[in-house]
From TrEMBL:
UniProt keyword annotations, A-Z: Disulfide bond, Glycoprotein, Golgi apparatus, Hydrolase, Membrane, Multifunctional enzyme, Signal-anchor, Transferase, Transmembrane, Transmembrane helix
Entry protein name: [heparan sulfate]-glucosamine N-sulfotransferase
Any one GO biological process: heparin proteoglycan biosynthetic process
Record: residues binding 3'-phosphoadenylyl sulfate: 716, 837-841
Coiled coil regions, renumbered to chain: none
SUPFAM superfamilies assigned to the protein according to its UniProt record, in alphabetical order: P-loop containing nucleoside triphosphate hydrolases
Annotated Sulfotransferase domain residues: 609-859
InterPro entries: Heparan_SO4_deacetylase_dom, HSNSD_N, NST/OST, P-loop_NTPase, Sulfotransferase_dom
């Protein structure tokens, strides 16, 4: 009011008198306006910084979700249990036929299956069928076709085989039907089915048929009002009782009007169930793709229904909403007492929808009482309400964990621990979150140890493993006894404080809530930990708007049962559901910029090897290892006290020690560009998980393996174990070992397997080729390495692109006593491998030779084909064997 009166007086005085008089007053006016502007700025700043969000914005957004059903109607739609005895005869896998794996529809299907963590096999619709059965059991639970054309255009033989498989094993199909490119096609009959398609229509007011047995997660009864954005829908007409509508809509005018559209507002069928009474095959037809969010729900329930419950989703959803940095924030953006009251009231409302719901507050004690007077009152109100909420510790001053050693991390945590004690903050769930996710992944070992020592932390969470995007690929892992759970974002970050500055506007946020990305996290993830920040509970209170809206939307459209348990219980439940996630898969920290920002500055990917010698054992890997070390540009790993020259990281318990442990085995290269770090671990070649693990950490690494006659390799391994004093090898002949039955003692079977299985080269090489292109894999003929190592080392250098080229003629010499090439020392003497190398064994008996020839024959033929396919040179020993 004071400024209003001042302005009115100034205006009156200025306008009084003639224009000439006004000119004389202009300077006075300008000065007054400047003064007024300055005073106004001060007043506005004071008003903004010391007011509650209610004053900062008059009307914080309210949840706008309306459920049309009352409680009685909701109770009518109970989730269906699809379990039947037919599920016992099929596997837990989906077969997907696509015309192109890069099409929009194919990507939507595969990403949805990945999101749902459903295993699938992708096949080109024009190729031969994969094997459909195994051991009198169907391999696939559901068959999915990217398009109807892919199904009806299958050649007759494959179509008949596939239909018979579905009939015999009661396996259903999901088929997507897409509009024709030619607008002239209005209707078309489906060959072989009493079904008519109407193309290129727009629809509105989409609703579900409540009277069908498909709905499990989906709750029918609501309607998607207004027009659906796409105008290329296909709708269905039928004249047989086998068909049952799954959804209806009304025809709508397309975004553009043209001569072929006649508005009639009639009801049409958009998704359809074929119950199989016509030909014994159940099918679900979609008149559009998975872009429409309701189709995502129908898709999940359809898989459950058609698989007889084999691929059913649980209905329980466990939810935790973390409010990071409850005391941390720029002055003017922090919570006031009114905001804390709103937070508590929102929690009460949410507890009616989510069993045991509590906001989980993360605190950094140093920032307490560091705001304006109203914000400090907000801090006090938070502590007044401390027992209403759950709590977890950050760092004392919000430090980034990866920047500090263990001692400094513990000092910071102890201060925060003492702050919690002094203010009676109930921190009791053995859970913590690192600021900025720093040190959780990529792992900073001191952080994990400090957590254990100070807070006895058993659970944390991060959105960074294996990386931030795509969100549906986030996973959990266990490291040093700490369960790391996947963490979801909800579209709100520290910079998102007001609805009118939300990226993409309010519509973007509402789209995420109403069927979009945030809704899908509830739909697909049984366990969700959401990351939010204090700033979005002040100001516009967008976080309250977001979570109340999305939970109400979930309740409207789904039968999901929303619950909250402690973080420790969530961790236990997660790894009960997904035990395969327990072991982490270490990724290359230097691939993603974000990971480099939260990885310790004193670590470098320069200490990761550029190539690996992977074996198999007893093929000459140690000789190659020694020859490589001669080269001045090649640096080997340091020796291990347990496994000598081998690190053996990727194939055993050492893998759980993490990449910090692994990198300690490598020197810091003098020149990261020209120097080549490498390691040799000969048991990598046949390790089940090794190719996947190596590719995850070292995707650009080159792989070297050595192949010799597998029969000789098997005999050499047996003799190696015998020379080492192995009791089994000493008590059994070689022939007894390799022919031992499965009923033999465990240690006998173990020696049999270690003798025979690594020599099934084709099986192991195929696994490496699944992850590495053939240009990154170099195969050495073990016989040539022994007889002509100079030529082999020349080719190895070419493969690695090492400069300068090294002439091994000057450094390798044949030793007639040893029977192989040795290194030439500076004193011009031969330095050969130890006594354990180059042993002369008694000849293998003919019976064993014949057995091994028979055992490896089929695999060696397959190996020859695989090598030829990838344009590798066939080893001399293999050519000789196949020509005999």
């Amino acid at each position: 009011m004071m400024f209003k009166r001042f302005w009115e007086r100034l205006k009156t005085n200025y306008l009084r008198g003639s224009p000439l008089h006004r000119v004389g007053r202009t300077k006075t006016l300008v000065s007054a306006v400047v003064c007024l502007s300055f005073l106004s700025f001060i007043a506005f700043s004071y008003h903004f910084l010391n007011s509650s969000p209610v004053h900062r914005i008059a009307n914080p957004p309210e949840p706008a979700i309306t459920c049309r059903m009352n409680n009685l109607q909701k109770s009518m739609f109970t989730p269906k249990d699809h379990t039947s005895k037919e599920r016992l005869h099929i596997g837990a896998r989906v077969l997907v036929f696509v015309e192109s794996q890069y099409s929009k529809a194919a990507k939507q299907i595969t990403s949805s299956l990945q999101y749902a963590r459903i295993d699938y096999k992708l096949e080109n619709a024009g190729h031969n069928l994969p094997t459909l059965t195994h051991a009198d059991k169907g391999r696939f639970a559901v068959i999915i076709f990217e398009s109807l054309e892919a199904y009806v255009n299958m050649d007759n033989w494959n179509r008949q085989l596939l239909d018979k498989y579905c009939q015999d094993y009661k396996v259903g199909m999901i088929i997507f039907v897409h509009s024709a490119d030619e607008y002239g096609i209005e209707k078309e009959k489906v060959p072989g089915l009493p079904l008519i398609l109407r193309y290129n229509v727009a629809v509105k007011d989409y609703r579900l048929n409540a009277f069908t047995d498909i709905w499990r997660i989906t709750k029918p009864g609501e309607t998607v009002l207004d027009n659906i954005e796409e105008d290329d829908w296909v709708v269905f007409e039928y004249n047989h009782s086998t068909y049952e509508p799954l959804s209806y809509a009304k025809l709508a005018p397309p975004p553009y009007l043209n001569s072929r559209y006649i508005p009639d507002n009639s009801t049409v069928v958009c998704a359809l169930l074929d119950r199989g009474t016509l030909d014994g095959i159940q099918r679900i037809f979609f008149g559009n793709d998975l872009s429409f969010w309701v189709h995502q729900m129908i898709f999940i329930d359809g898989i459950s229904y058609l698989s007889h419950g084999k691929l059913s989703f649980p209905l329980e959803r466990y939810i935790l909403v973390d409010v990071d940095d409850i005391f941390v924030g720029i002055t003017g953006t922090r919570m006031t007492a009114d905001d804390v009251e709103a937070l508590a009231k929102s929690q009460e409302r949410l507890q009616k929808e989510v069993s045991n719901f509590h906001f989980n507050l993360g605190f950094s004690g140093w920032f307490y009482q560091h705001g304006t007077s109203l914000e400090n009152a907000g801090d006090q109100k938070i502590l007044e309400y401390r027992n209403k909420f759950w709590w977890f510790g950050h760092m004392w001053r919000h430090e980034q964990g990866h920047k500090f050693d263990q001692a400094k991390l513990e000092t910071s945590m102890i201060k925060n621990y003492q702050f919690a004690k002094e203010h009676n903050i109930p921190v009791m769930h053995q859970y913590a979150v690192a600021p900025h996710h720093s040190g959780v992944y990529p792992v900073h070992e001191p952080l994990y140890q400090a957590w254990k020592n100070v807070w006895d932390i058993r659970v944390t969470s991060t959105e960074e493993y294996p990386r931030l995007y795509p969100s549906w690929k986030r996973r959990g892992f266990i490291h040093k006894g700490v369960m790391v759970l996947p963490r979801q974002t909800c579209g709100l970050f520290t910079k998102t404080l007001y609805i009118d500055t939300y990226p993409g506007g309010r519509k973007k946020l509402d789209d995420s809530i109403q069927g979009g990305e945030l809704f899908k996290t509830f739909l697909y993830n049984p366990i969700n930990i959401y990351m939010t920040h204090m700033g979005n509970y002040a100001n516009d209170r967008l976080a309250l708007y977001t979570f109340e809206s999305v939970i109400k939307f979930v309740k409207c459209w789904t039968n999901l049962q929303l619950k909250q348990v402690t973080p420790l219980e969530m961790g236990i439940k997660y790894f009960e559901m997904y035990p395969e996630d327990k072991e982490p898969v270490w990724q290359d920290p230097c691939v993603y910029k974000r990971h480099m920002q939260i990885w310790s500055a004193n670590k470098s990917c320069d200490r990761l090897p550029k190539f690996l010698v992977v074996g198999p054992q007893k093929t000459g890997t140690t000789a190659l290892y020694k020859f490589l070390q001669i080269h001045p540009a090649i640096l080997a790993n340091y020796n291990s006290p347990d496994t000598f020259e081998e690190v053996q990281f990727f194939n055993g318990n050492n893998y759980h020690k993490g990449i910090d442990w692994y990198m300690e085995f490598f020197p810091v290269p003098g020149n990261a560009t020209s120097d080549f770090l490498f390691e040799k671990s000969a048991n990598y070649f046949d390790g089940e998980l090794v190719p996947y693990r190596v590719h995850s950490l070292l995707p650009k690494a080159k792989i070297i393996c050595i192949l010799i006659d597998p029969a000789k390799r098997a005999y050499s391994w047996y003799q190696h174990m015998k020379a080492r004093g192995d009791q089994i090898a000493g008590n059994y002949t070689f022939h007894e070992i390799i022919t031992a039955p499965d009923s033999a003692p465990r240690k006998v079977r173990e020696l049999r397997n270690r003798s025979l299985i690594p020599g099934i080269y084709v099986q192991h090489l195929q696994k490496w080729l699944e992850f590495f292109p053939s240009r990154q894999i170099f195969i050495i003929d073990g016989g040539r390495l022994k007889s002509n190592p100079v030529a082999v080392m020349h080719n190895v250098q070419r493969f690695l692109h090492i400069e300068p080229h090294y002439d091994y003629n000057d450094y390798l010499r044949f030793d007639p006593k040893k029977g192989f090439f040795c290194q030439v020392s500076s004193a011009n003497k031969s330095e050969c491998l130890g006594r354990g190398k180059g042993r002369h064994y008694p000849p293998m008996n003919e019976t064993s030779v014949e057995f091994l020839e028979q055992f490896y024959r089929k695999n060696n033929v397959a190996l020859s084909k695989l090598l030829s396919k990838h344009k590798y040179r066939i080893p001399d020993w293999l050519e000789k064997e196949l020509s005999d």
